[in-house]
Design a protein that fits this description.
Radius of gyration: 25 Å
Number of strands: 27
Strand content: 15-25%
Structural class: alpha/beta
Bound molecules: fructose -6-phosphate
Largest sheet: 8 strands, antiparallel
């Protein structure tokens, strides 16, 4: 979703800003822009399309400035046009970039128009620029004007403002949309994501909700939600600088699929050994909380939600703990009941998903005993807002379609199953099976990635298809859901997932030779049931692609193509069977020629509701 970069320095900052935007491209956007102050001159350049179009439009005349802000926009209010792209200006003096949505923009627009401000775009963001201009008429001070103006905004914002009359200063404000300040020597920076600034600094201050900060070349002043000046911790980033490289792969998504054995190794390192789960890996006080936990509520969105649904099967079957899973955007707008001794678990790659964050805030007020976040980004809003956190250590995920973040979430949830099961008389045999499964998982994934060539060949058969059906049973049902989500996201083929026992309750009507049916078939206790479902499809002329264990004894024939997945321990099968489905969606998208890493209309981090 939208990205922000800003800099105040002695040198020309335009290349820093453009590089920052390039490093945020993975988040998804439709237009880009930059505003620079050079001496007392304000220049703004905006373009529809990629950052490259913007960079091509920058020249010696409009590309100079020691203070600047830049933005990649993902349209919410107003179409994808140059006039709606950020930065937005007021009085040819103030320039503003903004992530989030100002929900009361219509009211503000009417008020500001009545005061004589002229609007040139359809965006909510332009109200920020004019609101600050209006406050400047009263206070004459940029920081004061922002502190006052933000009180009139409803909704979410991460915003940065500059004034050409005070050229060595940026003022930033955060509420519901992340912002991080990057500290340099004699220069300072800011961005919506630290990834943007890794080429120039590794020292960061993550702003907290309600913070407003004034940034100059050699000072950072931060004010909290009450307007009191505060100190915030400086954090040395451990994120790899070159996490943004494709490492020889054609797409980030393919690189990230192949990184899974390595990141899974990292995810379990120091956390699990032959002796079992290590102490204290869920943070201080976690064990006390787990001891009392009788019920788990999982909240997440998209792929992270699918990880949650898988965990429900594990928690109830192996750990003997009742669990419900809910999509964050549903949970936050309905009344729900909180059982006794309930633990709230949120799952998120980014830790900034607006709905998940809002659901967590709501749940914290409604009687949950404690909250745990399973997240990939240290210092993210979700981690900071949760009582307990567990980092998945997947490393930066750049492809919009989540892959390694999902499998590391699954590993984290298996570890949570062990941690909770310990207090619920989990049989030693089950515990040992999960422990061995996790320890052997990286190697098993390496083996499974060996299917890539076979799946690339199979993907050819999908190139002219418009619809598809994914089937699974038990804990493979959410894996089928995840497979369908991957395929639709990046190849734009309509894909639906069903628990295969549901087939005869409706979806069988869809079956014909034009509708490929993808079946996930490990060798588990539901295999015979699944085989009956497969026969139902065959009897109606369906064409199937079955990912199966060799002991499941499926044979390829004219109606069925079988791909043998390496045999694995049942507890880790959902993780293993995810891999072929990721590869299938990748190769189908490749054949279809879609934008694999930045699929249309999607954003990596969904920071608006
Ligand atoms: C799909 C995908 C999304 C995210 C969802 C939640 O490939 O990546 O469905 O899973 O937007 O994002 P996080 O996990 O960052 O909360």
């Amino acid at each position: 979703m939208c990205g922000i970069v800003g800099a105040v320095a002695e040198r020309n900052v335009v290349q820093i800003l453009l590089e920052g935007l390039r490093r945020l491209e993975y988040r998804g956007y439709d237009s880009a822009g930059v505003a620079l102050i050079n001496n007392d001159d304000l220049s703004i350049v905006r373009r529809i399309g990629k950052v490259k179009e913007l960079a091509d439009a920058i020249n010696d005349k409009n590309g100079k400035g020691t203070t600047g802000i830049a933005h990649t926009r993902w349209a919410t209010h107003g179409g994808v046009t140059e006039l709606n792209a950020h930065p937005h200006a007021s009085q040819a003096r103030f320039a503003v970039v903004h992530n989030g949505i100002i929900e009361n923009h219509a009211t503000l627009r009417t008020e500001l128009k009545a005061k004589g401000y002229t609007f040139v775009s359809d965006t909510d963001t332009e109200t920020i620029a004019h609101s600050i201009a209006a406050q400047m008429e009263i206070s004459g001070d940029l920081l004061q004007s922002v502190l006052t103006a933000v009180k009139t905004f409803e909704g979410a914002y991460g915003t940065v403002v500059m004034d050409k009359q005070t050229p060595d200063k940026l003022v930033v404000a955060r509420s519901g949309s992340p912002l991080v300040i990057g500290l340099g020597i004699g220069e300072n920076f800011l961005a919506s994501d630290q990834m943007a600034l890794l080429p120039v600094t590794r020292r960061f201050i993550f702003l907290e909700e309600g913070d407003v900060a004034q940034i100059t070349r050699d000072s950072v002043e931060i004010y909290d939600i009450n307007g009191d000046q505060v100190e915030r911790e400086i954090i040395e980033s451990t994120v790899e600088h070159d996490a943004g490289d494709k490492g020889g792969y054609r797409h980030y998504m393919l690189k990230e699929i192949h990184e899974q054995p390595t990141v899974l190794r990292n995810a379990i390192k120091g956390r699990i050994s032959q002796d079992g789960l290590q102490q204290g890996i869920f943070g201080e006080g976690a064990d006390e909380v787990f001891k009392q936990t009788d019920y788990v509520k999982i909240i997440a969105c998209g792929t992270s939600y699918h990880a949650g649904v898988t965990a429900k099967y594990w928690l109830e079957q192996y750990a003997n703990v009742q669990c419900d899973v809910e999509i964050a955007s549903e949970f936050r707008y309905r009344r729900s009941f909180v059982p006794q001794n309930a633990l709230l678990v949120t799952i998120s790659q980014s830790g900034e998903t607006a709905d998940t964050l809002a659901a967590l805030k709501l749940a914290k007020q409604s009687g949950y005993m404690s909250s745990l976040s399973i997240c990939n980004v240290d210092g993210s809003s979700l981690v900071r807002e949760s009582a307990l956190s567990f980092l998945t250590r997947a490393g930066a995920e750049i492809g919009v379609a989540s892959t390694k973040a999902f499998t590391t979430q699954l590993a984290a949830l298996l570890m949570l199953t062990l941690a909770l099961g310990k207090h619920k008389e989990m049989p030693t045999e089950t515990e040992q099976q999960i422990v061995e499964g996790l320890i052997g998982l990286p190697t098993k994934l390496e083996e499974t990635l060996g299917l890539a060539i076979e799946i690339e060949d199979l993907a050819e058969e999908f190139s002219d298809k418009h619809h598809s059906l994914f089937l699974g049973r038990g804990e493979q049902y959410p894996i089928a859901m995840e497979g369908a989500l991957k395929l639709k996201e990046i190849s734009y083929i309509h894909a639906e997932a069903y628990a295969s026992g549901e087939l005869k309750h409706g979806p069988l009507a869809l079956i014909d030779a034009e509708m490929p049916v993808i079946v996930v078939a490990p060798n588990n206790e539901l295999l015979e049931k699944l085989k009956s479902n497969v026969e139902e499809v065959r009897a109606r002329g369906g064409i199937m692609y079955v990912f199966a264990d060799k002991d499941a004894h499926f044979e390829s024939d004219e109606t069925m193509r079988v791909v043998q997945v390496p045999h694995c321990n049942e507890t880790i099968a959902p993780v293993v069977y995810t891999i072929p489905l990721q590869l299938l969606s990748y190769y189908v998208a490749l054949i279809k020629g879609t934008d694999v890493d930045q699929p249309r209309n999607l954003a990596k981090s969904v920071t608006v509701e």
